[in-house]
Design brief:
single chain, mainly alpha, Leucine-rich Repeat Variant, two-stranded antiparallel sheet, flat, tight junction, ARM_TBCD_2nd
Length: 1142
């Protein structure tokens, strides 16, 4: 809270304001907090005592300051807990401040600590403890002589000194009595204490830091003193008005000067006596008008202007408690309720009485003040409107009844639809203030409540969003204020109208709530609100079924033909939800649906689609909304088993679903997913209810037509059409798939295969996998059943192979790794299929398939994308820990259960590299999983994301440490690593990061054991694979990675070293200059790292490497390269002549 916003310590701001109420609220907040005492007392005492010790060390000084700040911030919500400790903290810090031997830096540091305390506890409470005797005035004042107002590092010192000086100004002695002890130097004019303080205050009112706020507090305490006001108030006010007049809010300097001056004036007119300030009020108001602050774009200046205006207005009016105000028995809600319980018949309301002071003259300036406050209610910033609302309340409390009622009328003028949302918000705040203070008489409620009802539903669309939430919140605040301010009998006529907006669970509120939804929310511009409103109507319809069926449903049917898109869309959704709700209720009560939905209503439901089709309302952007809404209608009517079987409307609905699925590519991307899901859900419900000849038996014609249509569209050149039709096949009921299962699975399997023409159709492959999974759940498992009707021994392996093959989909395009969507769907489908088989026919899970499944999941759980790694880990653990019954043939199950105990892994965040990779790297010790985990880790270790690289590398190196003393294990690991390399040769997705991984492993000595043997097979094969990988490559990243590997291979003795050097010397003459430079740099580091160059030529080799311009022309570079070959005994590479062109 800004200094200018706080009331005087220990005093109410206004006679009509009760400080007990605020104290009670503070107590309630304190009771709700968690802390009970200042628990860091000992630490704080030690921290403050060590300030001289940490002063010299900047790091320790900042650490102590930050620690103290952390301690104090804990008590922001309960600052009263600091009260018993404030005095000793203050004394410790003031010892440093008042000690003349203390260095300046220690004094400034002590004031920083004092500022932190004052910020948390509030300066008013803390300041009372500061020394404020007569003897303290001059020492505090003298401290300002050493202050630099432009030093932004020490502003806390000046801030606290100004506040300290303000509390010393409260001494009850004339300041002139202090001047007698001042000795002036010969020839030097003596400055009085009063003038010195005023000079300090004026100088700091125009600084740019927070000291400006403290200077305003100082001025308010100093200028309003009895001895100072006689001599200095007029001159200070004149200085203030001159400052305002010559300052402009168009410049930064002007804004700062006006801010400090306005704060000071507001504080003076707040704390000064009315009779002292009244002579100057009109002049100040006139000057303020000339400043034109409402035109400023500085929020704080406008707020201070409103604050000063209201203080001037209160100065014009005599302080009094309006005798005409409405008074409830107690200001505390709890006390009022208790009084009502104990004395229910005693009246607690003071009747409206004639205004005894009605004849008092109201100065003409008051009208100007009220007008400016009303303008402030419409300000664009909330803090200005809030200050204006408080001012309206304070002013109305001192006005005669008739004039106060005029003010209320002016406030009500803010609630016009020609006004902005700011005016509505400010008007609500003002009404709340008037009601809270008892200044809004019950006779006005009939005018106010309708306005509040509008405010409770206020919303104004602006572009793609809306405004009005602040207005609705403020209207709720008004309702809260009224509930506290008025007796129940005063509000009784309005309670139902206000509460029906929010409480629908009680019978008396149900119908008003339904009316509100139909009138205000079904046609809302926000689609989410329309959808939620329709669902709310579904719930409410069962509470008032007759009213809904007879009154609401016909209205909704008529609204489905509205020319307004939002109304039409919301009405169709509402019809769908309400019809299903009434059908459900009828079934629960054992009644026919016709008891609620008569023939006319049924006909209206059937006509919705045809009327929209005839009016061509399925086209364009609006058509997207209507397609989705009608699909939801179809689904709900089918699930409600409406008696439409054999009706022509079924063909119309089927056409809509088919047309939507075939033309998904024409639908905007942001709506496509929702429409696709709605159409698929509608198809599933429609086929189950209206395309069944008998229960469990499909209509042959419909089955033939739909299956044939969707299978044909799976080969569409449009990806979205494939997506929709794949999901449609997956949504068909079991009886629709009978005799067609093999055909459908074959069609979906074809979609999952990647070909050159549809390599980018990742979404189609993903949805085909989802469809396969759903079909498996739909048809169920019968081990010896026919493959055309159920999952069985004959088709399970084929389905597994399809799903597992999709785990190899690493397609990338401009969207990134789109193959990850396919892999994710494949993992989910594999989990669902395996758990299904495990529950019903576990013997169908073959050992090779289960091993391949678990290994592939382990690989995915070791890769670099957090989201998909986490999903793979969850699937892996779900299959491992499945126990109803356990999944058979899981490789190394005992070791896995030891590595991944159910209780321990439940808390692991598999999306966090720091937690996931150390766990998955343990699988490197299990031969069955080593290949696939190493394949996944290689991609992660050689990746780009810093956290992924760091923790995957740590996990890999931890395993390498464990096997360093086991030659056989190291040989096996090396063989697996080479196999991964060989299997992914020229596969840049794996080979490039694998080269980076090999570089790190060689550089960190993971294979140092192999250096004891010349031409170790691991090194020989690795060199050969690296040569093959970069053969004729122009990939700079791959070449740079291979250079590091060749440098690492130089450490191994034998022909491997010479061949590695030869490869490096070949790269020193690579056509790309960047490769030549990088090779020279890496070879230079290699020479320094490994002892492979004879000492006799070491200096010359390093000189050639460092001094040669390797990006020069190739003939020049080749000469230097050949010289290096001679020095190291490596055969010079020979140029191969290009074959002649005949």
């Amino acid at each position: 809270m800004a200094l200018s916003e706080e009331p005087a310590a220990g005093a109410a701001e206004d006679p009509a304001e009760d400080p007990v109420e605020d104290a009670a609220e503070d107590a309630a907040l304190a009771c709700g907090a968690a802390l009970e005492s200042f628990g860091e007392s000992a630490e704080t005492r030690e921290l403050l005592g060590r300030l001289p010790v940490v002063l010299a060390d900047r790091s320790a000084r900042e650490g102590a300051l930050e620690r103290f700040r952390v301690i104090m911030d804990k008590y922001q919500e309960q600052p009263h807990l600091l009260d018993p400790h404030l005095e000793w903290m203050l004394n410790l810090l003031l010892e440093f401040v008042q000690n003349k031997a203390s260095p300046a830096d220690l004094v400034h540091l002590a004031f920083k600590f004092l500022y932190i305390i004052s910020k948390v506890r509030g300066y008013k409470t803390f300041l009372r403890l500061f020394p404020h005797e007569v003897a303290d005035v001059h020492p505090v004042l003298d401290m300002f002589t050493n202050q630099n107002p432009k030093d932004h590092e020490t502003w806390e010192t000046r801030y606290m000194l100004l506040l300290w000086l303000s509390v010393t100004c409260l001494i009850p002695f004339d300041f002139s009595r202090l001047d007698g002890n001042l000795l002036s130097q010969p020839g030097q004019e003596r400055v009085s204490t009063m003038d010195r303080i005023l000079q300090v205050a004026e100088s700091y009112l125009v600084v740019s830091d927070k000291a400006r706020d403290a200077a305003a507090v100082l001025v308010s305490k100093f200028v309003t003193r009895p001895d100072v006001k006689q001599k200095k108030m007029a001159s200070f006010l004149d200085w203030s008005l001159c400052t305002l007049a010559r300052s402009s809010f168009q410049t930064i300097e002007g804004v700062i000067a006006m801010d400090g001056t306005l704060q000071a004036l507001a504080q003076i007119f707040k704390h000064g006596k009315r009779e002292d300030c009244l002579p100057y009020a009109a002049t100040v108001l006139q000057c303020l008008d000339s400043c034109r602050l409402p035109d400023s774009n500085q929020t704080l200046l406008r707020k201070l202007g409103v604050k000063l205006v209201q203080r001037l207005g209160l100065t014009f009016l005599k302080p009094r408690v309006a005798g005409w105000r409405y008074q409830r028995g107690c200001r505390s809600l709890a006390e009022s309720l208790q009084h009502s319980i104990q004395n229910p018949k005693e009246p607690m309301t003071q009747a409206e009485t004639p205004d005894s002071d009605g004849e008092d003259d109201v100065p003409a300036e008051v009208e100007s003040v009220i007008e400016q406050l009303l303008v402030g209610l419409k300000d664009k910033d909330t803090i200005v409107r809030w200050s204006a609302a408080k001012g309206i309340g304070r002013m109305a409390g001192r006005l005669p009844k008739e004039l106060a009622d005029d003010v209320t009328g002016s406030v009500l003028d803010c609630f016009s639809f020609q006004e902005t949302d700011s005016a509505w918000h400010g008007g609500c705040l003002a009404l709340a203030e008037l009601g809270r203070r008892g200044l809004l008489l019950p006779s006005r409620l009939s005018d106010v409540v309708p306005v509040i009802l509008k405010a409770l539903t206020y919303e104004e669309k602006r572009g793609a969003c809306s405004v009005g939430s602040n207005v609705r919140d403020a209207a709720c605040y008004v309702c809260w204020a009224f509930a506290r301010a008025y007796e129940p009998q005063e509000l009784k006529p309005f309670v139902a109208a206000i509460s029906s907006m929010f409480i629908a669970g009680f019978p008396e509120y149900t119908q008003p709530m339904i009316e509100h939804l139909v009138t205000m929310k079904i046609n809302h511009w926000d689609g989410t609100i329309r959808e939620l409103s329709a669902k709310a109507l579904r719930n409410l319809a069962q509470r008032a079924p007759e009213h809904t069926a007879c009154e609401v449903f016909p209205r909704l049917l008529s609204m489905t033909q509205s020319p307004d898109l939002h109304t039409r869309h919301g009405a169709v959704l509402a019809c769908a939800e309400v019809a299903r709700s009434l059908r459900t209720l009828a079934a629960q009560q054992g009644r026919p649906v016709s008891d609620f939905l008569d023939e006319k209503a049924m006909h209206g439901l059937k006509q919705i689609h045809q009327q929209l089709y005839d009016r061509q309302l399925y086209r364009g952007l609006g058509g997207e909304l209507m397609r989705q809404a009608v699909c939801i209608l179809i689904e709900n009517l089918a699930l409600s088993k409406m008696p439409f079987r054999g009706d022509a409307v079924i063909d119309g609905w089927q056409w809509l679903i088919n047309d939507t699925l075939r033309n998904l590519h024409l639908i905007s991307s942001h709506s496509r997913q929702h429409i696709k899901e709605a159409a698929v859900s509608a198809l599933a419900a429609l086929c189950s209810e209206y395309h069944a000849r008998e229960p469990g038996e499909a209509e042959a014609a419909a089955q033939e037509e739909l299956v044939k249509l969707y299978l044909a569209e799976l080969q569409s050149p449009e990806e979205m059409t494939r997506c929709g039709c794949a999901l449609a096949l997956g949504a068909l009921p079991a009886f629709f798939l009978k005799g067609r299962l093999r055909q459908v699975l074959t069609g979906l399997r074809a979609v999952t295969h990647i070909s050159s023409k549809d390599v980018s159709f990742a979404e189609a492959r993903r949805d085909a996998l989802k469809a396969i999974s759903r079909i498996c759940q739909t048809v169920g498992v019968r081990a010896e059943g026919p493959p055309d009707e159920a999952l069985c021994r004959e088709n399970v392996s084929q389905i597994y192979c399809t799903l597992l093959d999709c785990l190899k989909d690493y397609t990338t395009d401009s969207r990134g790794d789109v193959g990850a969507w396919v892999r994710e769907a494949a993992m989910t489908s594999l989990m669902d299929l395996t758990l299904l088989l495990g529950r019903n026919q576990p013997e169908l899970i073959e050992a090779p398939l289960c091993q391949r499944l678990m290994c592939c999941l382990a690989q995915q759980a070791s890769e670099k994308i957090d989201r998909f790694r986490a999903h793979a880990a969850r699937v892996f653990l779900a299959l491992l820990h499945a126990d109803s019954p356990a999944i058979p043939h899981v490789p190394a199950r005992p070791e896995l259960e030891r590595l991944f105990p159910r209780a321990a892994v439940a808390s692991v965040n598999w999306g966090a590299p720091s937690q996931a990779f150390p766990c998955m790297a343990r699988l490197l010790g299990l031969p069955a999983y080593r290949y696939h985990v190493l394949l996944g880790l290689a991609v992660s270790v050689g990746g780009l994301t810093e956290s992924t690289v760091r923790y995957s590398t740590q996990g890999l190196f931890e395993h390498m440490k464990e096997i360093q003393n086991d030659p056989a294990a190291l040989e096996d690991f090396g063989g697996t690593l080479l196999q991964v390399f060989e299997d992914n040769l020229l596969n840049d997705r794996v080979s490039v990061p694998l080269l980076k991984t090999l570089d790190q492993m060689l550089a960190n000595g993971c294979f140092d054991v192999f250096t004891t043997q010349e031409d170790h097979p691991f090194c020989v094969k690795l060199l050969a694979l690296c040569k093959e990988e970069i053969k004729k490559s122009k990939d700079v990243q791959k070449l740079r990675s291979s250079i590091a590997v060749f440098c690492g291979l130089v450490q191994f003795p034998g022909d491997v070293r010479k061949k590695a050097l030869l490869q490096l010397f070949l790269l020193l003459c690579h056509p790309f200059p960047v490769i030549r430079k990088h090779t020279a740099s890496q070879v230079y580091e290699m020479v320094l790292t490994y002892d492979v160059v004879p000492a006799a030529v070491l200096d010359e080799v390093m000189a050639v490497l460092s001094s040669t311009a390797w990006d020069a022309e190739l003939p020049v570079v080749r000469t230097q390269r050949n010289h290096l070959c001679d020095l190291l005994g490596v055969p010079r590479p020979q140029l191969v002549p290009k074959p002649a062109i005949r």
